[in-house]
């Protein structure tokens, strides 16, 4: 299964370098810093996005909340859409 996921063609609509900036609402929210970070997993290939770590290789800064990840962002492993991720409790 991993070989299929690694060789799956990336969709042309995927953003290679989404904006690394957090939304103005997230930057200004005082309660935002107090909220726990969540972990999101791709339901297709199990790639994990950790809000605390971000994804600097994809242009997403550490501490970027899932709701602030651009909608056009795709899984770097299998090109799944953001809507194909589910929050995971660890």
TrEMBL record:
Which InterPro entries does the record cross-reference, listed alphabetically? Rubredoxin-like_dom, Rubredoxin_dom, Rubredoxin_ET
Give the record's GO biological process terms. alkane catabolic process
Work out whether the entry's keyword set contains Cell division. no
Pathway where this protein functions: Hydrocarbon metabolism; alkane degradation
Task: Name the Gene Ontology molecular function terms of this record.
Answer: electron transfer activity; iron ion binding
| UniProt key word Lyase | no
SUPFAM superfamilies registered for this protein in UniProt: Rubredoxin-like (SSF57802)
Q: Where is the signal peptide?
A: none
Q: Which keywords label this protein?
A: Electron transport, Iron, Metal-binding, Transport
Sorted alphabetically, which Pfam families does this protein's record hold? Answer: Rubredoxin (PF00301)
Which cofactors does the annotated protein need, by name? Fe(3+)
Q: Where is the Rubredoxin-like domain?
A: 37-88
What does the record list as coiled-coil region(s)? Answer: none
Q: Which family does it belong to?
A: Belongs to the rubredoxin family.
UniProt function note: Involved in the hydrocarbon hydroxylating system, which transfers electrons from NADH to rubredoxin reductase and then through rubredoxin to alkane 1 monooxygenase.
Q: What is this protein called?
A: Rubredoxin
| UniProt source species | Candidimonas nitroreducens
């Amino acid at each position: 299964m991993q070989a299929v996921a690694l060789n799956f063609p990336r969709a042309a609509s995927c953003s290679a370098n989404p904006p690394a900036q957090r939304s103005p609402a997230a930057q200004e929210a005082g309660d935002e810093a107090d909220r726990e970070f969540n972990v999101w997993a791709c339901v297709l290939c199990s790639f994990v996005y950790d809000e605390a770590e971000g994804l600097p290789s994809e242009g997403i800064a550490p501490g970027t909340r899932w709701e602030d990840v651009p909608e056009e962002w795709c899984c770097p492993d299998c090109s799944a859409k953001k809507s194909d991720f589910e929050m995971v409790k660890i």
